[in-house]
Amino acid sequence: MDIQELIDRLVVQQPIEYKELPAIPLYMDQVTTLLESRMYNTGEEAEGKSPTKTMINNYTKAGVLPPSDKKKYSREHLLLLILMWKMKPVLNMKDIGTFTTHLQDNVGTSKDLKEFYEAFLTMEREMRTSMYAAIEEHYDRICKTLQIESGDERAALMYSLLLADHAGEEKRLAELVLEQLTNK
Fold it and tell me: 97 and 65 in contact (C-beta within 8 Å)?
């Protein structure tokens, strides 16, 4: 297993900067095209991983996303969709709804939402950088602990198990944080 190759596949996808979001409202087709082209542009990995019209409509019906204004979606809608899409692989619709409700209640203006999003991007980059730096070290430690050579399938199995376990813990922590907001 070539760890650096896996890291390179992860690094390819860069987040959408605030300044890259259109200042004018977009129609649904424009929203889905923008998000599809920017959020996942790596071929077969992209399939089914960006918001569809149906999903956006379902989020609106569920109250997770505010309704469009005359069928047009603002920059704020785009920001919420991007943040929701970051959480979608890990959290259920109820938890995402808790997040968006509290975000909208506590981050009132467009300027505040912009600052929140930009702070998120900064912290996300910092966390990714430290994660990528730790990946090789963890993999080497697995090989050493199991007393096997790099590339041995057992190292890949152990690493995938540890990653899944860690992801589960972080998922549960995110759920607990959102539960605390709900119980306030």
Answer: no
What element of type H or E holds 26?
strand 26-27
Distance CA(156)–CA(138), nearest Å, equals 11
The stretch 55-60 carries a mean pLDDT of 93
Q: Is the dihedral of CA 114, 84, 40, 10 positive or negative?
A: positive
* Cα 65 versus chain centre, distance: 16
- Phi, psi for 26 (deg, rounded to 5): -120, 150
Distance in angstroms (rounded) separating the CA atoms of residues 68 and 60: 8
Residues 28 and 60 sit within 8 Å (Cβ to Cβ): no
DSSP class of residue 57?
Answer: H
At 63-105, the pLDDT tens digits run: 999 999 999 999 999 999 999 989 999 999 999 999 999 999 8
